[in-house]
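Q: Protein A?
A:
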Amino acid sequence: MSPSGEFTKFRWICTVFGLLFSVADIASDLLLCVQYGLTGHIAWCALTLLFILSGSVFCQVFSFAWFMDDSTSSDGPSGASRDQQTRRCTAYLVVVHMLQMGFFTRYYQLLKVSFKAVWCQGSTECHKKLFGLAADLSMLRLFETFLESVPQLLLQLYIMLEHQHRSTLQYISMVVSFLNIAWTTADFWRCFRRSLPGMNEVPGGISTAVYLLYKVLTITARILSLSLFILLDRFSVLAFAVVWFLGFVWAHVVKTSFCTSAWTEELYRAIVGFILVFTFFNVKGKNTKMSMTVYYALITVQNFTAPALLMLLNPSVEETDFFLPMTIVIVVAHILGLELLILYYGLLHPQKMRVPDEVDGMRATAKSATETRLQQFLRM
């Protein structure tokens, strides 16, 4: 972000890369799904497709709801002509989102409008609108990443370790999913930072690297440890469901207020619970030092218990070529990730540079629908 608050060429290029990562992630998973189907691995094919669809469907639901919120809050002349135009627009959006194209429609809209503003000259109001479109995409990408890319990594890892089934397409899918997780995390961090008063969207490289590494390392350790639990017993997935339910209940306890309707709020809380299985986010925007400490204390116990239990209950696993390297990666990645977490929240978090009385989010000024959403969304 430039000092004047413009949507820069760098930001436009980043948006293009984000689109490419999304397409590559979905395409590689679809090809892998087809490969499983052709080779007779119907269960793997179904699970791979399930994660693709779950990420897509939930993104379409929220994308459509936000389009409706934006149209409701937008200014303009009222009357029969506007009502007719609204009905046509709603019908078009319904079809687009039913075809699972709402996410990419937003990308097209952002790239088209931003191209004119970036490579020509756009007004300040135009650039503000562009950042709003980018923020919506960033939040949708976070949903899609944790509902599709992260579970996909866990599934493919289990297939490779338990069934010794390895293919080039599997490796490609896992690498692309990992890159998508890293890119989405960095992109969301930029959007969140820009929502804070007086903060630049593109900060110093040190704080960016520290936050990104903290998230990537802790998520990596988490995925590896969960895969070991599944290797121990496939019914461990039921324990993951318990962890999800606790996260869902926590979202209820803190009374999230992200959505404008009750049913989408419940859906949002369910997704928050799922995200909390893998990593921590500030759900409500309050001081979460205690809840974060408890969360990572429990995750530490779970991560370190996984290899210990597997070795104790299945001693033959020590003879495999993956157990020792995975155990080392889990321990090192988790400890290093927590050290970076302490460094980030101790010295580099944007809140350290803000007025203490302000909560995470925008200034208390007139907000657009997107600004309101970002203020109520998951925080860092």
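Q: Protein B?
A:
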Amino acid sequence: MYLSRFLSIHALWVTVSSVMQPYPLVWGHYDVCKTQIYTEEGKVWDYMACQPESTDMTKYLKVKLDPPDITCGDPPESFCAMGNPYMCNNECDASTPELAHPPELMFDFEGRHPSTFWQSATWKEYPKPLQVNITLSWSKTIELTDNIVITFESGRPDQMILEKSLDYGRTWQPYQYYATDCLDAFHMDPKSVKDLSQHSVLEIICTEEYSTGYSTNSKIIHFEIKDRFAFFAGPRLRNMASLYGQLDTTKKLRDFFTVTDLRIRLLRPAVGEIFVDELHLARYFYAISDIKVRGRCKCNLHATVCVYDNSKLTCECEHNTTGPDCGKCKKNYQGRPWSPGSYLPIPKGTANTCIPSISSIGTNVCDNELLHCQNGGTCHNNVRCLCPAAYTGILCEKLRCEEAGSCGSDSGQGVPPRGSTALLLLTVLLGTASALVF
């Protein structure tokens, strides 16, 4: 008896949950572009800002080295392990898989021991500078969501610059400078991210925090994305609403975390001393075991899915938008200028959907499947929406008082309370559940 009552209550809860589906359990993730909701006027589409999940972006990049022949092993050469001039019996040989160190080993799984790594040729041509550019390209605009982490198998370089591009490598801007001596290397006073603030978060700094050293815990270089987020969202990133609000209203801040390419410029290897030991040049080289870049495809808050096909990332656009970044309105949906979605108001944001063009009005302006009239409007012969008195627009998407500039608490016009039918149904179902139990 009790089992049957439990099953009945469970069935009722499933029904209620399906009705309440539009209201996410965790707000602010923007992982749904649209959903059908139930109002007193019936079932309508509710559109909202949306974005893909954050993921490991190194799975989708292409890497390029300059100079292209800088990788060790062709011809084979010996090098000194950990920069020790008395341990120079290690060999790099591109023709032998076990001794080769190609660029793709910067991005493979690092669960094995010993770790795999890319390695440059040694500084055998000293005093000519040993410099390498490592370019990471996505052929797509991406938004960074976590720290960029570079793990060196060699000592961390004495001088390095991390750069970004927003135009597919045509132009470059510095992200951060790294040096054992910032003033000597780049004529900049040393700083760390902790020296920044909300007002100076976009400042390009030189840090001495990550230079030199051979111990296990001193192989890593960071570009601190999360520390910069924390200026707006708090030290544990709990106030994401504040961060989203800043990203929404400050284009320079949003662009700061947006890239199409990254470039690691290795300018001087780890010397560890004032002078270069010219008798043991095989101790100087670069070696990187891992690079981590987390982010998401930039889809302008018009998509939750980014597909990787034919070595290319593309947003699967919603809201009647199109393009690699959902950066324009689809044909026949240019009734108003394209606009990116907005994180505001929290928690669902604003979709800023593209609406049908006036010149395209004809059949299938509305239907009962995909093009629902909004806010209680009814579709008349698939050619126009019959809107309630308080609404206007092709799909009844706008308040009439907005056009007159008279919306307000006293206007008597506003968005009908969503979910009232669902709440009524919940009350009825709970009452029924009580009867079943007692």
